[in-house]
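Can anyone check this?
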Amino acid sequence: MGVLLAITALLSWGLGDFLIQRSTRRFGDWVALFYITAFGAIILFPFAYPGLRAAIHNHPLLLLIACLVLLFAALFDFEAMRIGKLSVVEPIFAFEIPVTAFLAAYFIKELLTPGQVFFTATLIAGIFLVSARSPSYLKNIRLEKGTWYAVLGTIGLGASSFLFGLGARETNPLVINWITDAFIAIVSILYLALTSRLGGIWSDFRNNKRLILNVSFFDKLAWVTFSYATLFIPIAVATGISEGYIAFAAGLGLMFNKEKLRLHQWIGLLLAIASVIVLALTTAG
């Protein structure tokens, strides 16, 4: 069950990142963030409500830290995708996995087996290879826009994945998702009000309803299924499998945009796919 949920998160994030880039370039970071989190807060409220009081009473610090870390991560992540190229920022996002694994091992002593460590490492290598369009990627990365935003976003998202997994276990997956969505939606609307940008929210929604609903749905589906996956499998493994969405996105580009992959990208794609499959099968077993 955990593996299937992590794979669902993989597919949802593969579509979600592409739509987030389009959304941030059309509306800006804060408006896109508001649409996505407001959608989650509205949709999840009836399901999260029964557990809210107990969660807030028993784990207020955990929930507050999760809200602040995800807000930090989302802003840097969105800005990286808004100003940068996906071919530049996506390889950096692969390093979310070791950040999550380190936090899980340090704070809750959730250690991976040697086999899981090995295939997680090959997955990271595969994601990096398939995402880096050129062998000279490392030489030019400092000169590219969005690089440092992507680095900070990756650290924040790795921490967020750990906190969501921990929050899902201590409360429940719907509560941790609703509280973070509600918090970020409120912060976003306050920021937009202070910067006199509230006026365009409704008109943007009417003119771009399909894009907004699609990006909100797939992003929320990814976070919810990922949170549920951590109830069944190690947080680092759930993160590793779901991060395979980067290779999935490359496969979509190959099929639908008729992109030509270079040799190192083919090697990376095959390595990432094989690693996800083996990691999933060994974890399920």
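Reply from J.R.: I decoded it. The chain has one domain: 2-284.
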